[in-house]
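USER:
I wish I could look at a protein chain and see how it folds. I am handing you a single protein, as its sequence and its fold in token form. As I understand it, each token names a local backbone shape. I hope you can help me see how the letters and the tokens relate. The protein I mean follows directly.
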Amino acid sequence: MSRKKKFSSILLITMVLVVVVLQFFRPSKNISEEISNNDILKAEDLPREVSRILVTSCYDCHSNNTNYPWYSEITPVNFFLDNHVKDGKRHLNFSEWAKLSAEKKAHKVEEIGEEIENNKMPLDSYVWLHKEAKLTEAQKQLLLDWVKNYQPK
């Protein structure tokens, strides 16, 4: 066996071993057992369809309860998803909604409207793998109407 082939074989085996070992290291999952009283679904009197849209299109990244797909079990994908969820929750966490001041709630709702109008949310990368999360024009309009009429509790 030539030196180059031997080196390539050792490199490949090492890479496979590293990937296998990494599978034993995982971030903790963003899963809560129940909806807290701080959740927007309990803290606000949302129209049923608005609640459904938020859960379907927003909650995986913007709540304390993510529904994980099969590929989230693969390292390093699980670390990428963990970072993505933490970042989403840092911007807006519907599970902690009641803890926000009325002014902060009004500002967050305004930002939701801007994100929807500018087609920034849900993210294209998320919708690509979660077709059910893609907002129809009617759903966008429903959310924009809710945003326009929102009165914080």
Q: What stands out?
A: Residues 62 and 90 are 8 Å apart (CA to CA). The chain has a mean pLDDT of 92. Residues 28-149 form one domain. The radius of gyration is 20 Å.
